[in-house]
Structures are given as structure tokens and as C-alpha cells.
Amino acid sequence: MPPAGARPGEAPPAFRLPPEWDRHEATWIGWPHETSDWPGKFAPIPWVYAEIVRRIAPGEKVRVLVNSGARRLQARSVLARAGADLAAVEFFTVQTDRGWTRDFGPIFVVRDRGEGGALGVAGFRFNGWAKYSNCRLDAAAARAVARRLRVPFAAVKSGGRDVVLEGGAIDVNGRGTLVTTEECLLDPDVQPRNPGLGRGGIERVFREALGASNVIWLGRGIAGDDTHGHVDDLCRFVSARTLVLCCESNPHDANYRALEENRERLQEARLEDGSKPEVVPLPMPAPLYFAGRRLPASYANFYIANSAVLVPTFNDPADRVALGTLAELLRDRPVVGIHAVDLVWGLGTLHCLTQQQPAAPALAARR
Q1: What CATH code is assigned to 24-366?
Q2: Does 352 participate in catalysis according to the annotation?
Q3: How do residues 146-188 score in pLDDT, each as one tens digit?
Q4: Which of the 8 DSSP states describes residue 53?
Q5: Residue 132: CB partners within 8 Å, gap ≥ 6?
């Protein structure tokens, strides 16, 4: 059997994207500053971030992107008052447009062979979800972080063009399988990321840049998703062989048909070794709206840190079911709910805000 991420007769990939549950050296997060992302609701947002940092810090470093020295002082004050362990927090002055670090931040990959665990950054281009033009600072952030850490930044290209990809568009099991959606990466008309780069081209990029030789394609994402189909609001790996999939029980809900279609697709899906994945249903909360707009409230936007699994909650009876389901599946660390009713007004929650940096023994030894 070839190494994970390689096909028979092919050389194994130079780097691979580890699964989120592998040991982290750090979690990256961008301190919030763009008030228009939470119109009329910005005041509580730094305190939600502080609770996220407080829960992550016992198990790993938390590396916080700040736009200025003044923003750093403000963040330190909020974190201290919230009881976060400031000894575990490192600040990096890197200019950003927004705080959605999952999507514009560095996608860290590791080398398993040769240099023995070396770390690198897969340099995908960020273009504001092919929707927003004010993304110049965000687009430069991943390279800036790689430079500060002194790790390789390899621009990902296809046919001489930079490949656009956000971290929230993909999820991996670390053994060679990646899950994503056609809506996000293959729609030629709405928020097209890579015009002309079809399914085969995208799969080749995943194989070469992320070590993922096997791609599970789902259809559409959830209603209200400003990214046009990010998989991290929909379906996530919780182990090498198990996925959770959001399910809607109300046939009149806007999400019902798309989620049923994705469930049917997963019945036919296969992992990298040809076996069927186990698929566990994750409930959806009741619809949330802001100014008449459906918000992308989803329990699938959880984040697996070293010390805890952080799960968005929405003051909904389904909160308890979602927390219990994930606690049964991720038994090696506590599952903690984070109140996200205010946070989701920004059209994202916990996974959208965070990006893991895998532990890399070779890198640690150099410092």
C-alpha cells in the first residue's frame, strides 16, 4: 500500500496536512477589530474571543495577530480580566483586514519523511472569498507568519496561477482523505475561486500540496453561509474513519434538501483505503436571523484544541444533543460549549476564527 497521499507508482507528497486532533504547538487567532463584521454587536465579541483563548491556553500556545501596539494592549487587558493564562499567549503584530484566521491564515503542513517532522506553510492565495475586495492585508498574513516563524512558504500554483483556497473549505483525516463541497470550489458563477481549474485540477492540487489523494465531494453548504459552501459548517472528520454530518429534521427548513443530498453522497463515499467512513448525524439549531437574513449557525464549526473541543452553542435545545454527540466521539479531551449567538452575527464562529499549528519536533529542536 502506498504512503498516505500517494497513488500507486507515485512518489509520496513532500508535505501533508495533519488532522486537527493531532498535537498542536499553537493555535493562531486574529484579535477582532473590524466592527462592521458584527454590526451593532461588536462590544461582546472581544469577550467571546477571550473565552476561546482561556479554554485553549491550558494545552498549547495561543498566537494572536494584532494590528498595532494599542490593539495588543487592549487584547492583553481583556484576556487578563477574563482569566486567560497570559504566559501562554504570544502576540504578533501582523496587519489584517478581518479576524477570520481559518480562511486567510497559514495552512500549516508537515514533512513526515526526510527532515523528520519539519513544518511548512502551503501558500494558497486568499481573495476575500471571491466576494470582498478589501482583503489585501489578509492575503499577505500567511506569508508574514511563515517569515516570522522562519518556516518555508511554498506558493501553491496550477498552470502558472496562484490557487485560491480558504482553510474552512476543507477538512482532512490525516491519512489521505479530504472532504470539501462542489458549491465552494466548483461553482463557475457564484464566488468562483479558480476559474478554469476543474475537479481534476483541484484534486491534483490537494494531492501535491496537502498530501490528500482521496477527495470526498459533497454538494451544497448550509443556508446563510457567506462563503458559498464551506465544509466546516457542514461536515467534519472526528477521527481517521468517522465524520459528523449536520442533519435537519424539518423538511420545510431551507437546509433540509441539501443536507439530505449530502447524507446520500456519504453513503457512497470511500476513504483512502476503499472502506466506508462511519457517518454520525449532528443536529442543527433552530434558525437564527439578523435583519431578516439567515445566519450560518452550525455545531459543525467546532474546534479541536489540545486541551478541549470547543463547540459553538446557540441557546437552543439541540445544544445539549450536539455537545453529547461530540463528547462520545472525542473522548480524549473535554467538550466545552462556547456561547456563539453574538459571534455568529459575523457569519462565522469558532472554527472560522482559529487555525492550528501542528507540533513539529524538528522545528522545536532548532529554537
Answers
A1: 3.75.10.10
A2: yes
A3: 999 999 999 999 999 999 999 999 999 999 999 999 999 999 9
A4: H
A5: none
